[in-house]
Amino acid sequence: MGERNWLDDDQQKAWRAYLAMVRELDGHLRQHLQRESGMSVPEFELLARLSEAPGHRLPVAALAATTGWEPSRLSHQLSRTGGRGLIDRVPSATARYPDVVLTEEGLAAIATAAPQHAATVHALFVEPLGPAGLDGLTAIARTILDNLEDHHGATCSLREHGGALDGDVSPP
User: Fold this and answer.
1) Of 5, 28, 64, 135, which residue is least crowded by CB atoms under 10 Å?
2) Please, what is the Cα angle at 112 between 56 and 82, to 5 degrees?
């Protein structure tokens, strides 16, 4: 077994700071969203995507592609959100599977939650970074996402074993 590529002290410090930042920011944003709007992050994402779609309607396949969720997770989330009366599943005119449509209750819920969530993101993420920090972070994120896309297409051992790559993301 060859020499391992261990992280040096600076690399370890940066990696652990990144992990702590993602964990703490994600947890804090999740708690705010739940407390202030009564919805989970996956529910918010689903409602937000539908609110931005033409007619507040998307095919299930499009939701699966844009969220990157496994079919079972999407199905569970659609059942949960539908049970709350925030979405409906309706027959599709063009696809085998139903379309998902935002109900009036769902539209009202996202219209209330989105400004509150955006304000929290602004306070905890945007303001501390400022314009230069945002530009730098965007460049860093795109570099990592491009590298990850190259890795998936070329050398990723997960592809060899037929494993799904959860969260496949394309750079914005």
Assistant:
1) 5
2) 50
Question: What are the domain boundaries of the chain?
Answer: 17-130
Structure tokens at 69: 């969720």
Tokens found for residue 83 = 């049970």
Strands 99-102, 87-90: pairing is antiparallel
Q: In sequence order, what DSSP letters do the residues of 68-130 get, joined into one string?
A: ---HHHHHHHHHHHHHTTSEEEE--SSSSSPEEEE-HHHHHHHHHHHHHHHHHHIIIIIHHHH
Which residues have a Cβ under 8 Å from the Cβ of 81 and sit 6 or more positions away? Answer: 43, 46, 47, 87, 106
Query: What span, in angstroms and rounded, lies between the C-alpha atoms of 136 and 40?
Result: 29
Pair 37, 113: CB distance under 8 Å = yes
| Fold of the domain spanning 17-130 | Arc Repressor Mutant, subunit A (1.10.10)
- pTM for this predicted structure: 0.79
Q: What pLDDT digit, counting tens, does each position of 149-159 carry? A: 999 888 888 86
Residue 76 pLDDT > 60: yes
Task: Name the token pair of 150.
Answer: 């190259």
* 130 phi-psi bin (left φ>0, alpha ψ -120 to 50, beta other): left
Rounded to the nearest integer, the mean pLDDT of the chain is 90
